[in-house]
Amino acid sequence: MQEHGDYLSVLNPSQLAAVKHDGASLLILAGAGSGKTRVITTKIAYLIAEKHVDPYAILAVTFTKKAANEMRERAVALEPRAEYAQLRTFHSWGAYFLRAHAELAGISKSFTVYDDDDMVTLISKAVPSLSRQQAAVAAHKIALAKDYCCTPDSEELAAISDEPQFAQIYAAYEQRLRETGNVDFGDLIMLPYLVLRDNGDVRHAMHLRYRVIMVDEYQDSNVAQYLLLQQLAGVEESSGTYVCVVGDDDQSIYRFRGAEVQNILNFQTQFPGTSLIRLEMNYRSTSEILACAD
Fold first, then answer.
1. pTM
2. How is 142-172 classified by DSSP, letter by letter?
């Protein structure tokens, strides 16, 4: 473990301000090469070592296994106790939550996660009149609906598809899926949101468990992930959970999966009292320019 003075001394003023920030929520806007991963991992280490935050009370999520593993490795290198924090992908955390609350979610504790092909096969069984190609189109629309947290009876479903039979296909698929006890990829976010929304005791337990929630690459979040974050953070209940999100307001590589760049643009409105810090020094470009100069 490095002494805290060592790992703080390498930060520029904006990075240091982000690491030391506390109180209300924090939005960090940072482009590629600005050191945002360093800020997140250093903040986790700083909270544990200097602010005496229980690692068990920290949840940090991102969008790929590679990014989550890097976050974990770098945080643990700075502060070994970071090993006990929850540093994982959004969907990995969703699966973890559903294993613990399977009964409330109406699924099996030993559920498997259906991939796109599994979805198409199940739709074909639920609605035999559909061709394989039609089932594939329906599967894509159902996945998109879940990214927007739309159930078969949601009024907003019409924005996903204006086909009259889509709601019926979605409902038939959901019934078959629940009968198997399994889940699809979208359920890993939507079902935890629904369980938290509808069960105050579970929601309160999460507020007590997670006192710090951090989200990397927040510009890639979709509506369902935003709604889940709100429930976890207890925004409407003023739970006092500290929320820090990091993202680039100029990019969204996951837009094809329903990512909503509005989540980051509107974060300060959605999480009242939020501070904004911009990381504007691009170390990656600087090193590339120096390399070219050599």
1. 0.89
2. HHHHHHTT--TT-GGGGGT---TTHHHHHHH
